[in-house]
């Protein structure tokens, strides 16, 4: 007996797609490259066909907190399944980039009192739990203490 996956359903759609950060970045990409990307599928196809240009745009567009510099993004001839190095010479901390920004207005996470995430348990056994940005930053800060004391090794490569 063959099993068929359940039909996919859209979980969420913005009320006004043109008001989202991803739409704004798409418009800046279109202007920078002199191209038209009318919808998500076209953006996706362009990003796959032009991965170096796409990721360089993302790097320059996003306020990524990092140390070091790269000479080239990655080997443009390497197959993606060969798992090539990306941004060699650059070190970044994922959590730092989620919780803080490099000073670009409009890119900062919401204010400290807005909801950062909602925990939903299966089966509605318990009520949903909301965690605001301040609380999430505090919890992450406590978890980062061993790294700051030198207990954990750096994940950045030389």
Offer a quick outline of the entry:
The protein has 158 residues and is mainly alpha-helical. The protein has helices spanning 21-33, 40-49, 51-61, 94-99, 133-148, and strands at residues 67-68, 90-91, 115-119, 129-132. It has a two-stranded antiparallel ribbon with strand order 1-2.
Q: Count of helices?
A: 5
- SS content category: mainly alpha
Strand order of the largest sheet: 1-2
Question: What is the average of the pLDDT values?
Answer: 79
Write structural notes for this entry.
Helices cover 35% and strands 8% of the residues. It has 158 residues and is mainly alpha-helical. α2 (40-49) packs across α3.
Distinctive features:
two-stranded antiparallel sheet, 158 residues, 5 helices, 8% strand
Lay out the secondary structure.
Elements: H1 21-33, H2 40-49, H3 51-61, E1 67-68, E2 90-91, H4 94-99, E3 115-119, E4 129-132, H5 133-148
Antiparallel strand pairs: 1-2, 3-4
